[in-house]
Amino acid sequence: MVKSFTxxxxxSGAWAQRPPIPAPQSVPQPGPVNSGPYAPQAILPGGVVMxxxxxxxxxxxxxxxxxxxxxxxxxxVPGRISSIVNIHNPSVEFHVVERGINTGAVIILxxxxxxxTLNVGxxxxxxxxxxxxxxxxxxILRNRLRADGYVAEVDAVNDALQAVRTVRAYAxxxxxxxxxxGIMGFSAGAELSAPAAVLFDEYAKRTDAxxxxxxxxxxxxxxxxxGPTPFARNRTAPPVPPNTPPxxxxxxxxxxxxxxxxxxxxxxxxxxxxxxxxxxxLYGNGVHGGSLTDRSGIPFGTWQLRFIDWFRDxxxxxxxxxxxxxxxxxxxxxxxxxxxxx
Length: 342
Prior knowledge:
Blueprint: H1 2-16, E1 48-51, E2 70-73, E3 81-85, E4 91-95, E5 106-110, H2 121-132, E6 137-142, H3 152-169, E7 181-186, H4 190-196, H5 200-204, E8 221-224, E9 247-252, H6 257-273, E10 279-283, H7 303-313, H8 325-334
Parallel strand pairs: 5-6, 5-7, 7-8, 8-9, 9-10
Antiparallel strand pairs: 1-4, 2-3, 4-6
C-alpha cells in the first residue's frame, strides 16, 4: 500500500513539472494596411489569392479598399479561421489538386453567414480538403457583405460572377478545365450561386467589369440550404436563359421550412423552364446549416455524397478536356425549337 502511494506521488510530481504548451504555429493573419489596396491573404496553406477587381475599379469603394479584413478565429481549434468580415477588396483563393487525380473540375465556394459575416471555415476551407480526394479543385470566394455597407443582391452577386470570370481566365495556369467551372453557395452564399446561374448574360453587358471577353456563366451550380433566390415570391423573377447550367439543390425540409421553400422556388422555376439535370434533395429530418458535419448520422449528413453522385453522372469527374454530359445536354436543349407558352 505504501509502495502504491509513493508511485502516485512521483507521477503527480512529474505531471506538475510538465513544460508549457507552445503557441500554435502558422496561424493565418490578415495582411497589413499600407498605402495601396488591401492585399487579401491565403487562409489555407498553398493558396494563391487574386483580387477580383483592379485598383481603382469603379466597382470598389475607394475610401474603404485599404482597410484590412478581420478574422474571427475558432475558440476551440487553434489557427482555424471561422469567419471573415470587413471585406472591401473581394478576392478568390485558388487551390489545386495533384495532377494524377485532377479532373479539371473546379468549385468556387461561396460561404454563408447571413451577409453579416463570411463563414469560410465550415463552408469553404473544409470543402477544399473534402473535394481534393475526388480530384476536384476548389476556389474560395471572399465576397463583400451587407454588414459592411454593400448591397448583397448587387455587389456580392457581382463578386460571384466576376469570380467565375476570373477563374476561367486563369484556368490554364492552374490546370483547370475552363468548361468545368461552377459555383456552390451555402445559405447566404446560395443567394450568390443561384443568381449567378441565371444572370450571367446580364453581367456580360457591364463595361466596368474586368475580363469582359471571358464568360461569367458557371457550368454548374450548387444551391445548399439557400436564402431567397431570384425566384422568391416577393421578387420579380428574371427570365430563365435556355443555357442555364444544371443545379444541385439540398436543404432540410420541415426543420428548415423557409429555406426549403426558397429551394423549391428555384427548382420549380427550372422545372417549368425545362432546364435539364436539375436535382433537388429535401430531407425530412434536419435543421439549417451544418456544412459537412455528420449531423448524428441522419441522411441529411450525407448530402455531399449525393452531390458527388450527381457530379459524376454529369461527367464532371471525367478527364480534363472531355466534353461533359452536362454540356451536351445544355447544347441539345438550346437547339430545340421554341416551345409555345402554356
